[in-house]
Specification:
elongated, seven-stranded mixed sheet, five-stranded parallel sheet, 7 helices, alpha/beta
Length: 322
């Protein structure tokens, strides 16, 4: 089944990037259609929906809950005239214009658009522990820049062995009383410079050949410690802490576009420097699906603005032809 009209803009994704793109597109009278999603690649509203408190988004002197912030984004989109469908996009075809997007009714309904804005985001990788899941947003985090300030002058644990883990541990050491860095191997895979920075920091203690087998505090509703198991000696002990940070990477939600768009080696969508343009003219990407450096709500929103403006300008130059 095919939806009759060809849209000017379709936005896939409903985090800060997607909503900002949709708001700007609506104000340009492009009448955007947004696919909010239900399960594919995360949840409607993006990663902020599992963030209890946000203190670093401009305009909110008092902290705001992540779901409340995204509720405000969504309300503003609706107020500007954005049409939002709570469906998952199951397939896209970027082989011919207008672009085709399938969603709803078991993925049988086809929608078409002159421009496409991809804002499907990325998901943090987790250890997969039940206790980790239970305490997510209650002391368990995957973003030190987002949540580190909540643990000022406290003890925290970071797990990971790459550059991200080194950066997170170093950042947290600047405000926390102590940082315990846990890595399952006997050496880090991070760059030598990042490793040296961590090893030289007196506030960071490194645990090699060690895995986290439990995050403690489920019964109290907040992290109280982490269970560590040494894979070489089989010894187990508990480190007392109030914060646990998983720094083992992120997975961009790009499976829909594999083979159709140029991706970086790490799977993120490649955009032309300083723009939201992808390798396919008329297709734009914004937010964490193309940003593996900053991954912040405010930078995602900014790139959403860029995507909408780039789409509008592209349509003007192309004459809006499908």
């Amino acid at each position: 089944m095919s939806h009759a009209s060809i849209r000017n803009v379709i936005v896939i994704g409903s985090g800060p990037a997607g909503h900002t793109a949709a708001i700007y597109a609506a104000r340009a009278n492009l009448k955007p259609l947004m696919f909010e999603g239900q399960s594919r690649g995360g949840i409607p509203g993006g990663q902020l929906m599992i963030t209890n408190d946000v203190e670093n988004y401009p305009g909110f002197p008092e902290k705001i809950a992540g779901p409340d912030l995204m509720s405000a984004f969504r309300a503003q989109s609706l107020a500007q005239g954005v049409e939002i469908l709570g469906e998952d996009v199951t397939r896209v075809d970027l082989g011919a214009r207008p672009w085709s997007v399938w969603a709803g009714d078991g993925g049988q309904t086809r929608y078409q658009a002159r421009t496409l804005i991809i804002a499907t985001g990325a998901q943090a990788k987790w250890l997969g522990l039940e206790s980790e899941t239970a305490l997510r947003g209650r002391g368990v985090s995957a973003c030190a820049v987002c949540d580190g300030a909540f643990f000022r002058n406290q003890d925290v644990v970071v797990v990971g062995g790459g550059d991200t883990a080194m950066e997170e541990a170093t950042y947290l050491a600047g405000m926390c009383r102590s940082v315990h860095l846990v890595h399952r191997r006997d050496s880090f895979r991070a760059s030598k410079t990042m490793q040296e920075r961590v090893v030289r920091n007196p506030k960071i203690r490194v645990f090699y050949d060690t895995v986290v087998d439990e995050v403690l505090g489920v019964d109290t509703g907040g992290v109280t410690g982490v269970g560590l198991w040494n894979t070489r000696t089989s010894e187990r002990h508990v480190v007392a802490c109030t914060g646990f940070f998983a720094a083992i990477g992120h997975t961009p939600n790009t499976d829909l576009f594999a083979g159709q768009l140029e991706l970086h080696d790490n799977g993120y969508i490649r955009t032309k420097p300083g723009t939201a343009h992808t390798s396919v003219p008329g297709v734009f990407a914004c937010g964490d699906v193309q940003d593996f450096t900053y991954r912040q709500a405010v930078t995602a929103a900014g790139s959403g603005c860029m995507a909408a403006l780039d789409a509008e300008r592209w349509m003007t130059l192309e004459g809006g032809e499908g």
